[in-house]
Specification:
Low-confidence stretches: none
Strand content: 15-25%
CATH architecture of the largest domain: Alpha-Beta Barrel
Mean pLDDT: 94
CATH class of the largest domain: Alpha Beta
Number of helices: 11
Number of domains: 2
Largest sheet: 8 strands, parallel
Distance between the termini: 51 Å
Strand order of the largest sheet: 12-11-10-9-8-7-14-13
Order of helices and strands: EEEEHHEEEHEHEHEHEHEHEHHEH
Radius of gyration: 20 Å
Structural class: alpha/beta
CATH superfamily of the largest domain: Dihydropteroate synthase-like
Helix content: 25-40%
């Protein structure tokens, strides 16, 4: 029976000096871990869990399986910035990605940016001025039960907006599952492919993404057809999603996509219950063991309403910012959000707190 291993940070600290240097910097960012759990799984079930302080883990590491040693190195991997035309998106600190939905049936904004280019352009400009590092443009709703969109219509929705954003010098990602849309979007000036199917939906997309040479975001979703939410079945949602993302990352590498151009997303809300989503959010530091930058898209998601008296999507700001902070505390590099100004403000305050902790040398006395 095959045994798999997972090295999960289980205790984070405000600075390395607070642990007298016995803390590991996660992913080259501003988050430090001092304790770790080594989880063993056989036949889909957790068979053992061993806890280590960092010095204990370093001492034990030579005798641990190669996969664990690789994950330990991955936890520390420093990620190169994403180059998006003239814009550079650094990955050594949290960055906010603003959402621009150009669909008639978006769960969060009801298609208000689809039919009026001036309104969409103004909204995108507002997000950039507020501090968005990138704008994620989408022309298809992927909420549960959403109708399929013909790729020609999707192209008509997204290309004009991308052209305007490119003219403004913005970093742009295209949120699509279809190769024709990817190609049209990149031709219009987009820089990143964000595929909620993990480059599985369109059989041509993996090869196209490799040939294009642009960064890609691979998101976990259980569905293999039009409905990305279908077919969800988890033994352990955290470890199952980890394994799935590892396999998609390997597929991307095998297709010729460079390692420094792969971003992974656990897919909050896609084929997952509230309990599943909460487990994934609590386990976010584990996903650094995959060795890739992370994106978190939890903004205005259904789980927030479920935890707050069924608040409507437009009333989920507080929960959205809370989940963004959760991502920051876990070392997530890219926060995909609707409410850019509020999230950027949270990032700046969080960054101030981290800088103060890192320069507080009284902890060494």
């Amino acid at each position: 029976m095959t045994m798999t291993h997972y090295l999960r940070p289980i205790a984070l600290c405000e600075s390395p000096q607070s642990e007298e240097g016995a803390a590991l910097r996660l992913a080259g960012g501003l988050v430090y871990a001092s304790r770790f759990a080594l989880i063993e799984r056989q036949g889909g079930k957790v068979s053992a869990r061993t806890r280590y302080a960092l010095p204990e883990l370093r001492a034990a590491l030579p005798g641990l399986p190669p996969a664990v040693q690789a994950q330990f190195e991955n936890l520390q991997r420093v990620h190169a910035p994403l180059q998006c035309g003239a814009r550079t998106v650094r990955l050594d600190q949290p960055q906010v990605v603003g959402i621009l939905n150009l669909t008639p049936d978006s769960f969060s904004d009801g298609g208000q940016f689809m039919d009026d280019p001036e309104v969409a352009n103004a909204h995108a400009s507002t997000m950039l001025e507020a501090g968005a590092a990138m704008i994620d443009v989408g022309g298809e709703s992927t909420r549960p039960g959403a109708a399929a969109v013909w790729e020609g219509d999707e192209i008509k929705r997204v290309v004009p907006a991308i052209e305007r954003l490119a003219a403004a010098g913005a970093a742009i990602s295209i949120d699509t599952r279809r190769t024709a849309v990817m190609e049209a979007a990149l031709g219009a000036g987009a820089h990143v492919i964000n595929d909620v199917s993990g480059l599985r939906h369109d059989p041509r997309s993996l090869e196209f993404a490799a040939r294009s040479g642009v960064p890609v975001v691979l998101m976990h979703a259980p569905g293999e057809g039009e409905d990305l939410h279908a077919g969800a079945s988890y033994g352990d949602v955290v470890l199952d999603v980890f394994d799935w993302l590892a396999a998609r990352c390997d597929a991307a590498l095998d297709a010729g996509i460079a390692q420094d151009r792969i971003v992974l997303d656990p897919g909050i809300g896609f084929g997952k219950s509230v309990a599943d989503n909460l487990a994934l959010l609590n386990a976010l530091p584990l996903f650094h063991a995959l060795g890739q930058p992370l994106m978190l898209g939890a903004s205005r998601k259904r789980m927030i309403g479920a935890l707050s008296n069924e608040a409507a999507a437009h009333q989920r700001l507080g929960g959205s910012v809370m989940l963004a902070v959760k991502g920051m505390e876990a070392g997530v590099q890219l926060l995909r959000v609707h409410d850019v100004a509020e999230t950027v403000q949270a990032v700046r305050v969080w960054r101030g707190l981290k800088d103060a902790a890192l320069t507080d040398f009284s902890q060494l006395a």
